[in-house]
Amino acid sequence: MPPDTTVADLESAALKDLDAASGVDSLEEWRVAYLGRKGRLTGLLRSLSTLTLAQRKSLGKKANELKDRLEAAYEGRRQSVEEARLQQRIEGERLDVTLPGPPLPLGRLHPITQTARDIVSALGGMGFQVAEGPEIEWDYYNFEALRIPPDHPARDMWDTLWIDYEKDGRRPMLLRTHTSPNQVRVMEQRQPPIRIIVPGKCYRFEATDATHEWQLTQVEGLAVDEGISLTDLKGTLAEFARQMFGRDRKVGFRCDYFPFVEPGMECRIDCFICRGEGCRTCHHTGWIEILGAGMVHPEILAHAGYDTDRYTGFAFGMGIERIAMLRYGVDDIRHFYANDLRFLRQF
Amino acid sequence: MRVPLGWLSEYVDLVLDHEELARRLTTAGAEVGEIITTGDWQNIVVGEVVKLDKHPNADRLTLPTINIGDGQTFQVVCGAPNIAQGQKIAYAAVGAKLIDGHTGEATTLKRAKIRGVESEGMVCSEKELGLSEAHEGIVVLPADAPIGVPLAQVLGETVFDFDLTPNRPDLFSVVGIAREVAALTSQKVRDPSLQYPEKGALATGKAKVTIADPDLCPRYVAAIIENVTIGPSPDWMQERLTAAGMRPINNIVDITNYVMLEMGQPLHAFDYDRVAKHHIIVRRAVKNERLTLLDGSKHKLSDQTLVIADADRAVAIAGVMGGHDSEVTPKTKTILLESANFNGPSIRRTSQAFKIRTDASTRFEKGLSPHLPPVAAARAVKLMVELAGGKAAKGLIDANPGDAKQGRVTLTMERLVRVLGLEPPAARIREILTGLGFGARWMPPDRFIVRVPYWRTDINIADDLIEEVARIIGYDQLPTSMLRGEIPERVPQPRSDLRERTRDALTDVGMQEIITYSMTDLESLGKVLPREDLEITRPLRIANPLSRQYEYARTTLRHALLETLAANIRGNQALIGLFETARVYLPNEDDLPTEVESLCGVISGRLPDRWGQATGEPAGFYDAKARVEHLLAVLRIDAEYREANDFAYLPGRTAEIFVNADRVGILGEVHSRVAEQFDISRQVAMLELDLDALLPHVKDLVHYKPVSQYPSVEEDLAIVVPEDVPAARVIELIRQSNLVRNVTVFDVYSGDPIPKGKKSLAFAISYQAEDKTLSDEAVAKERARILERLKRELGVEPRA
């Protein structure tokens, strides 16, 4: 048999067998059978010793070329077999990506806490720091020191829940009706410049309905320094309102009365339901009240021992429930303390 | 305060439309809460009775023919006795919206046959038009009312209902509002006329006024009007009173009410002949003195009550309500008119003590001007002369004319700029102040001397005037600026910081935050606290609770969490985790309570499986503990848990939480007997922390420890210990080894083959040295040392 025929025969047999090897195991068998140490190609090379030098040279070259070809074919075949095997595995392990992951526990903050934090953060950016005070207060801090003496008609603005405790024929202890008493407490302890906010619970002797709760949460603000004027109050409140309700909100002010400020004002935003046209939410005024404010009455600064020729200040206070109702579109204040999880989990 | 615009326009020209006027008033401080338009009638027009026939089947009914112009006439059936030919009347066509004269309900007029005759519409009474309760006769319109025009053009009225602030008693009057309108629209006020003929003898000769308690009554003015004829007041007055929300009574009483609404000064008319010795004495009541008021109510007075008395007895509670015995009756001939000034706080106290709030007391309590009584008295006398045929005695009795000087306030431009942040031109300031009735004199170089009009009792200092300037300019017209000064030094708030971190840590592990009421009742507290505790620490009581349910300041949060949990269990096993951070109020003798920042949480329901279904174990002790451990880990606080007993918790499944030596809280499974009180039948685990007790243990800053360069060796160690040895004790002993970096329990087992009364505990121990790689021998030596210690301390054997 001429050696050339032998090489060609070997190649066609090898390629035929390679084609038939479709698994990892049969591929390995093939490799051993043809390219292994005792394989047929090695056998062929070994048989060269019986040939002439010229034949050896010619056939050796051909055999080595065949080896390269078979190795390349083997590598190609191996890759396609592995690719097919991987494809098969992927196919078998395909997931329904629409199924949910195992749920992780999820808890949320109460909407009033969330709103309070947003308020504290908006004002915090303007240098106001939190300073909390007691919820059960003396009449002195809640009223008298705020220029609301006993029997003053302005007491009607804050219907009061009194603690059953009498001293000298009077009831001096109450549930604070607003967060303003902490203005006085802070001014007793600190010197200007002052910029504080007082978030906290307040209580009113008030029948409950869709817009009134006897327990409520307020945030009070107070700034005292040299050179603080009404225009600063307007600027601060306008910036606050835009941070809370959107940059395109219009902010308005009207004259209002609180005994501890002079001048006094109410801050309003244009109704975002009707855009100022007038609707049920804004009582057809186009405006929604959000807070009361004013320049701190000079008697209150004087009472704190501050020089009223040198220092001025402003104060403001707002109900967090009201702000939350407006921001979330909640139509009944009673939802907040009913603590129905179907309500709370929406926030 | 209701102000009919027709009445208002008597004192000032209304140059703006109603909406704009209301907006301007509101912005400047007098809030128009509502614009009420009476006469929003549909299909009701002015008609003329052109013919009046008798009803063929009923004597009391007539058949007027009504002309409404454009050749349209209708025959209707009418039952009113006062109808007459030629009258202008209110004709309602079929389809008109009316008030049913009998039922008082709103109704739509339908075509109807009455006693056999078709009625093509109706002639209306006041009641049917919603004007009043009067249904005796039809409304007769002025003779010059144009035929065919909508009724609203003839009878309609717009009323501003003001929500006023208590600092402006002057605005509780039509004239006061007129002054405000004038200032806002650059108009002039036309003051009501006070001129009347004085025909009688000197008033001072007819009656005497003594103010015994001038501290409560700074001024008392009286007038005498003789020969009055009591009868109804004229229609225009009745209409104005009705529109302002008052009920007409008779001409004298109506005049006192009218002048009160007009000028803001409450007045009272006594029957002169029923005032003993014609002597008015203003004094404090004698204790237990009795008085029957106008409304028939009988009262026992205290020595704090200021009364108006005659020579014999109290005849009125000053500033609140007149007495029954001296009131004006149809037989009254002579009036003694009171126009006085009373101490506001005193009136307020009295009004609250007797629970009587009247139009008079609400005005007096705000502090009226002592200059107002003679003005209002003159106005009322004039009307009584004109409308009740009275004869005015000469002069007024003025018991304490006082100091007629009016207040002066200095306004410097420096202060104005300091408060407002801008400087309006001096001319503008003067214009605003004079427009409001102030006298403003410029004192060069830099200030106004401002004379305050008597009715502005709220103006005392420069800043009050600055508000006047700002509100008339309009706050919206002022510029805005931002705070410029230095930002104050930061004052740390560790207490609120801790509370907020607590909230975040618990929501992070699936707990929902709730906020509940701070007040509760003893019954709720008694469900979760032992009776003795409530008796020793009696919670603070509210003197005037809104309801029994909210009578006490809570000393725990437990009941609130369990109530909320109960309300949210909706017949399934879903896991619910709730928490609240709030204050509890621990009473102190003669001082404010200690408000403790507290945390309470509950967890109940079955743990979720891979799909979130509540198919796992019911949440219990360890689930509550996991949440406490998570929170304390977030706060980097090491705690110790000791078995404990507590009223609300199940014995054997309760642990007190200690940090160093401080007890900071408790957790465990809620006692089934407690849960049942809240109608909860399933297992509930609860956790409580006193955040104020925890606060000192919160570390500000963490100090870095270098990480060891050398590998650690991980080993498991299983031991058998008596059942009652707590795992924490074993861990503590293992930790004593210097080479132990970390120990965790990973298995607890009792039962075969562990002997009875014992349990097996398995620990994962991590050994590590700072300075070298530990050899197997070194670890083995350390392990032997640990086992030796466990054996010595606890009699423990390693598990085979």
Task: From the structure above, extract its key features.
heterodimer, A: 347 residues, alpha+beta, two-stranded antiparallel sheet, 41% helix, B: 800 residues, 7-stranded mixed beta sheet, 21 helices, elongated
Break the fold down into its secondary structure elements and pairings.
The complex is a heterodimer of chains A (347) and B (800).
Chain A: H1 3-20, H2 24-35, H3 40-46, H4 53-92, H5 111-124, E1 129-130, E2 136-138, H6 139-142, E3 173-175, H7 181-189, E4 194-203, E5 215-226, H8 230-245, E6 251-255, E7 261-270, E8 287-296, H9 298-303, E9 311-319, H10 320-328, H11 335-338, H12 341-344
Parallel strand pairs in A: 1-4
Antiparallel strand pairs in A: 2-3, 4-5, 5-9, 6-7, 7-8, 8-9
Chain B: E1 2-4, H1 5-8, H2 18-27, E2 31-38, E3 44-54, E4 62-67, E5 73-75, E6 88-92, E7 97-99, E8 106-108, E9 112-114, E10 117-119, E11 122-123, E12 140-141, H3 152-155, E13 157-163, H4 174-185, E14 198-202, E15 208-211, E16 219-226, H5 235-243, H6 251-263, E17 268-271, E18 279-284, E19 290-292, E20 298-300, E21 306-309, E22 314-317, E23 321-322, E24 335-341, H7 344-353, H8 359-364, H9 372-387, E25 391-394, E26 397-398, E27 408-412, H10 413-420, H11 426-435, E28 439-443, E29 447-451, H12 462-473, H13 494-508, E30 512-513, E31 519-520, H14 522-528, H15 531-536, E32 552-553, H16 558-568, E33 576-588, E34 591-604, E35 606-608, E36 614-618, H17 621-634, E37 640-643, E38 649-659, E39 662-670, H18 672-677, E40 684-690, H19 691-694, E41 713-722, H20 727-735, E42 740-749, E43 758-767, H21 776-794, E44 797-798
Parallel strand pairs in B: 14-25, 15-18, 30-33
Antiparallel strand pairs in B: 1-13, 2-13, 3-4, 3-6, 4-5, 6-11, 6-12, 7-8, 9-10, 16-24, 16-25, 16-26, 17-24, 18-21, 19-20, 21-22, 22-23, 27-29, 28-29, 31-32, 33-34, 34-40, 35-36, 37-38, 38-39, 39-40, 41-43, 41-44, 42-43
